[in-house]
Amino acid sequence: MPFQLTKEQQMIQKMAREFARKELAPVAAERDQNHTYPGDSLKKMGELGFLGMLVSEKYGGEDMGTVAYSLALTEVAYACASTAVIMSVHNSICCGSIEKYGTEAQKEEFLRPMAGGEFIGAFALTEPEAGSDPQSMTCSAVRDGDHYIINGTKRFITTGKNSGVIILLARTAEKGSHGISAFLITHDLPGFAVGRIEEKMGQCASDTTDLLFTNCRVPASRMLGREGEGFVIAMSGLDAGRIGIASLSLGIAQAALAESIKYSKQRTQFHQKISDFQGLRWMIADMAMEVAAARLLVVNAAAIKERGENCTAAASMAKCYASEMAQRVTGQAIQIHGGYGYIKEYPVERFYRDARITTIYEGTNQIQRIVIANELMGNPKRQK
Ligand SMILES: Cc1cc2nc3c(=O)[nH]c(=O)nc-3n(C[C@H](O)[C@H](O)[C@H](O)COP(=O)(O)OP(=O)(O)OC[C@H]3O[C@@H](n4cnc5c(N)ncnc54)[C@H](O)[C@@H]3O)c2cc1C
To answer: What stretches of 68-146 adopt beta strand conformation (E)?
Structure first.
């Protein structure tokens, strides 16, 4: 498939690159070290339109298309993966789901301010006992007049603390995927609290939290989509989300490759630049090949989504390959830096840690392979 970026896509990519390298890159290490939420930068990103990239103009968004969005996200991740994951969940899953499934009133109340970056969206699917198998969730929503009463715990929620709205998946009927519904949760609801904030290996400037629901009363008007439609909403959101995580992984790897080339041209051993050793040049060539291959998968998935076609397999392939590629490439980047790669003074140490989660969140890569195989071959028959 020949692919050429449009002039507009190239312009958005350039704008995102300039912003990310000027605004995010200089403070990324410090924010990672101090676990500082990038609220100031997100505000600026909202003003520049980065937080409503997929939202239609009718609701105050930029409607730039998935390819342009993916390019921008890669640029943000190149500079700061923590900011990129917040941007990804907000745009891909939250804005996308509210625009697709929300009522007019919900779009006015939530989508419009989200598109302008007034507040950030989070997505709460995972529970302590329900990760790869979200259908086993136990968080419950029981109808009580014109409210639902929610009880349960959500785990590992990106921007759980700093979000303005959270798409919550909870059980409205006892069994199966049709028993799951989606709700729009705000922090002011009685019975809702943010639980523990995780200490993580990487992406430390983004908060990852438990969400606690104890007889939390949510107005029935806060249901997103119809009762029982939550699982479909979550899966459709994750298709988009996986293109986001693939774009993010690509950005981290590109940064690791660039730092490796730069360092190898500075470092001298055996009276010559290490960039002149063939062993190292081949490592760089392999890294560049892998980055280029991932870029094609990512742009392909984004283009399929943008055309409105089924992107499930393409999104999972892009996420799976790009995230594993990012781990290999960031690992090689450390190797090229030698001992200095292991030291926090050099950014490749952070890239390596930041890349590690990408094969796990938004569905582990084992789950991506199941999704890809099911799309190709249908679901396996289970023995009774
Ligand atoms: C930093 C971070 C941010 C996150 N952000 C969010 C968020 O914003 N919202 C949200 O809802 N969740 C979020 N998550 C949760 C994340 O999506 C889950 O951790 C992930 O889906 C895996 O679930 P689990 O951790 O329970 O692992 P498990 O499901 O317990 O998996 C453990 C291992 O078993 C494997 N496995 C499980 N089932 C199968 C199978 N059928 N075949 C083969 N292997 C299998 C897995 O691949 C994995 O290797 C986040 C997690 C982290 C760490």
So the answer is: 121-124, 140-144
